[in-house]
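@channel anyone free to eyeball this complex?
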Amino acid sequence: MGRAGIRIPLVLWSLAVLYPIIWMFIGSFKSNGEIYANPWGWPESLNMGNFVTAWTEYNIDTSVFNSLIVTVVGALLTLFLAIPTAYAIERLRFRGSQFLFTLYVSAMMIPMVLGWIPLFFLLARFNMLDNIYGLAIVYAVSQLPFTIFVLTSFMSTIPKSLEESAAMDGLSPYGVLLKIITPLSMSGIITVTIMNAIQFWNEYFMALIFLQTEENYTLALTIDFISSEAQYTNAWGTLFASLTIAIVPVIILYAIFQQRIAKGMTEGAIKG
Amino acid sequence: MVQSKKQKYLFLAFCLIPTFIMFSIFTLYPLFSGLYYSFFEWSGSSENKEFIGISNYIQLFNDEIIPMTILHDYFLVAAKVLGIMVLALFFAVALTQLKIKEAPFYRIVFFFPNIMSVVVIGILWTFIYNPSLGLVNSGLQFMGLEDWTRPWLGSEKWALPSLVLPSIWAGIGLFMLMLMGGIANVSKSYYEAAEIDGANEWQQFWKVTLPLVWPQIKISILYIVITTLNGSFIIVQIMTGGGPNNSTHVMGSYLYEQAFVQYNFGYGATIGVMILILSLVTVLILQFFMRRERVEY
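replying in thread with the prediction:
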């Protein structure tokens, strides 16, 4: 096979990936007239009007803020729960640790959509329906199995002698967890947290079910709302601007942590 | 050890109990009570919750839309497994075996859609399929293929196949990376030996690469099947909402409609049980058929 020939599909696929994203980005600077006149063309000027409309008329600022809260609270809560559990399962080896691990890990394979119906009523009973903190808790728990799975595999590489000598020096088990294990697992903790954060920032369906009023919408819901409005108002430029707002933080994260994200995702995927 | 047994158990409890409680409340309990709900007729308010035995299941078997949704789900599974595995394998081999300088660039670009929100992907592709403004139709016009243009997502015949492309577009990078990981672990000496035996690149691919990355291929297929059966309804919900005329409804989007639009929560739960059973059975069957002895090194 010729080396030049093999490049053709590679170039074509990168165009297929990049072009729609760049097109969306360019579209966010175009007026509706320009989009209709030539959907493929360049904007006449760097017009920020679409961003202003998205920001003010559709209250994207509130949604960005909600998404940030859900993402940060969700990611921190996941860690708070998962680190001690992963430590106990992987390093303390008590009776039933294998069972617990299997229980958590097999939850990754189960379709949760069945559980969302009772969860809806459960949240209503806890007064956490239509509440971004309620959503953050649900998110955090939904990523627990994956997080525990990734953290146990990171923790398994820490030498046992470290904990033993720390315990000899009189460090309590809480101290060992906090001062030895957590810092040494930091690379795994960061990786899994970035991935969870991306997950929470992007999530759509649970937000659709559990949130109801517009002021509680996350970014995903607001974009969906703008999109369904655009079918009637044809405000495509505004829609592109809101898509751009949603995707820029992810691009930045990806640019910084590209290697980690790719590695973590593939490790997490190998679970079936 | 300085610590007593009691302290040790206290510490274990500290580590395990909060997680277990949260997991039980927000994962285990909803799953089991979902099962329980499937025996009720229930529109959401507590007064009218009525035990109806297996009536929901009888309704499920007589519901004309259910077989359609199952068929649509498995259509998406088959199309995604085929599309993603062929392309991902091709890209993985191209980026590892052939010495291409810009390989890291392709790796980064191809993976990027994997971290994009499904909402962004869905809306972007809805616009790409837009009959008058979208890239697909204007591209076809540009190439002089006016006859091929159509309202992709508005056509009962084309809407479901149209959903395959965004799913492949968004999913390929992850599996490419997984397969690249597998290929990277294959020792160079096998290729050298194959070359000495006179095998060309094509034969090397079939005889060396493919058998040795079989574990990664198997896991990838399983993973695509699970995630599609458990989550294909999200892209459906965003791009078509199950329409036109139910032609894109999958099991999950039908559950959403029954439970959260029509307020038939009991029947929705019954559909959920069906999804659970079908996806577990599918995984078991797949695992049985993909058992293949590991290649001995």
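from a first look: DSSP finds twelve helices and two strands in chain B.
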